[in-house]
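Field reference: "sequence" (input) and "structure" (output). Example, Cbb3-type cytochrome c oxidase subunit:
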Amino acid sequence: MSTFWSVWIIVLTLACLGLCAVVLWWCMKDKMGVEEGESMGHEFDGIEELNNPLPRWWSIMFIITFIFGLGYLALYPGLGNFAGVLGWTSSNQGIKSLEESKAAADSAEEAGLLVQYDREVRFKDERFNEVLKPFVEREIIDLAYDAEALRIGQRLFLQNCAQCHGSDARGGIGFPNLTDGDWLYGGEPETIRQTLLHGRVAAMPGWSSMGEQAIEELASYVLSLSGRKVNEREAAAGKLKFAACAACHGVDGKGNQALGAPNLTDNIWLYGGSRKAVIETLVNGRAGVMPAFKDTLGEDKIHIISAYVYRLSNPEKPAE
């Protein structure tokens, strides 16, 4: 805020408070020239106006409110650029990254500033550490069948994962379904945990340089792998070109979880299984990003979410 507008707000605010104080003082004084309780000479519809003072309780509450307002403006920000004597602020402003947020929080703490958001985050972390402590020492596969752990995991999932995967975890176009047991990188408990900790970045390249005809033939072959009815001659030609894809998807097209390459034979499609969608994938590639949550959630919460996600596609506990 510029200095002009800061001064303008300060002057306007204090002027309004001063005017309210004058009006209150004036109303508490008897300036009518008529004895208290006597008629003011006004009558309407049988109702006569008398010279009565303001109720004492009303005046006292108004004074208290006025003093509170002055105290609040002195302690907290509200008068233009004045930050208040407590140095309180709702949050660190202008933050663009997690690193900046942490640095700003440390700097504010060293300076003795009261940043409400930072205080609430610290309180939340302390509280969560207490709540999660009984669970983090247990195996993920064990927590996946613990009712209380699942309740916590579901809430964490809804807060952090449902935006992409949906509240029912069934995903959408470009966002994997977590309930069907089909995994790009593997569905073992530790693999799920690693995905949440470090994220995933897809690396499906575009093959537009192959030319339109080659893309059509390759699409026919890819669709045929999942039993779709296609032009056999195109599929046969596409099989020869599939050698470029086999490095990731395998010669049989069944994918490679080590690379996150999907199985092309199961008719489960992350970006859609129509011919148009497959051609778009082949031409432009795919570069989906699963963000890493290690720094934002921490390992304890991820441990609980991993159990919840594992349970989604494993409703029955595996035999020991």
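Residues 208 and 237 are 17 Å apart (CA to CA).
The domain at 208-287 is CATH 1.10.760.10 (Cytochrome Bc1 Complex; Chain D, domain 2).
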